[in-house]
Amino acid sequence: MTRRTGLYLVQMPPRVEASLWRRLRFEQEVRCREQIFSRYRTLARTIARRQHGRRPKHGADLGDMEHFAYEGLLQAIDRYDPLRGIPFGAYARRRIVGSIADGSARMSESDATFSQRRRIETDRARSLCDVQDRDPVAALAALVSGLAIGLMLEGSTLVVGADGVDPRPNAYQSLEWRELHMVLGRGIAELPEREATIIRQHYEGGVGFVQIADLLGLSKGRVSQLHAAALGRLRRRLHGYRR
After folding, report:
1. What is the pLDDT of residues 169-218, one digit of tens each?
2. Under 8 Å CB-to-CB from 169, ≥6 apart: which residues?
3. pTM, whole model, 2 decimals?
4. CA 130 → CA 133, 139, 158, distances in Å?
């Protein structure tokens, strides 16, 4: 398997996808739902970008449209019947377009100013702050380091962006920067399964905590806790590297 998990899933053979649907529908393997979502996440983002190009001057921004596209994809996964013989991509496309249209229509002008990007950043910050029994200095340190790790994850091949750009460190970046990314990569590989899924979906695909909660069958608060726990593990991994 290539390290670029999202790309691997897009190229998944039809027989493998058929196996995922069988295991999800008839054997109730919930993990297959996340794999199907990852396979079609790029489709949802592509449709969102296309719809964004057709939007009125004062409407939902791209981040909001991606948010609605993910909601539509999740609805499509839950309602799709693989026994009817309709390709899931075609079925999902209609649900995604409809979800974007409905979501954009629901948004008020004030909602539109608060973009999905800001929602994501707010969720991250709250996740890192919602830890009890911590003194203010330690809380601030955890917040700053957690947000910094998030920026590293977004700008690296540890999680791959949907635009296909190769963000690997180039010849002008320091050896230490490369080593930090290697340490982070090993840390992500050792995360518990749910924490790894949250990191992958959130930083690779820009999926919000609400959609991840739906995807994993958890509350948004629990996703927030697991996100903070994952970044805490990665922070400790980097701290051990620096010593």
Report:
1. 554 456 666 777 788 888 888 999 999 999 989 888 889 899 999 999 99
2. 156, 177, 178, 181
3. 0.68
4. 10, 9, 26
Give just the sign of the alpha carbon dihedral 177, 182, 187, 189. positive
Cβ–Cβ under 8 Å, residues 201 and 215: yes
Question: Is residue 204 a contact partner of residue 160, using CB atoms and an 8 Å limit?
Answer: yes
d(CA 180, CA 122): 26
Q: Look at the block and give the residue holding tokens 């109730």.
A: 28
pLDDT in tens, 34-65: 999 999 999 999 999 998 887 665 567 888 88
Between 21 and 153, name the one with better pLDDT: 21
| C-alpha closest to that of 159 among 128, 127, 187 | 187
Tokens matching residue 8: 């691997």
State how far the Cα of 188 lies from the Cα of 207, in Å rounded to an integer. Answer: 18
- One DSSP character per residue, the chain reads --S-HHHHHHT--HHHHHHHHHHHHHS--THHHHHHHHHHHHHHHHHHHHHHHTS-SSS--HHHHHHHHHHHHHHHHHH--GGG---HHHHHHHHHHHHHHHHHHH--HHHHHS-HHHHHHHHHHHHHH--SS--HHHHHHHHHHHHHHHHHHHTSTTS--TT-------TTS-HHHHHHHHHHHHHHHTS-HHHHHHHIIIIIH---HHHHHHHHT--HHHHHHHHHHHHHHHHHHHHHHH-
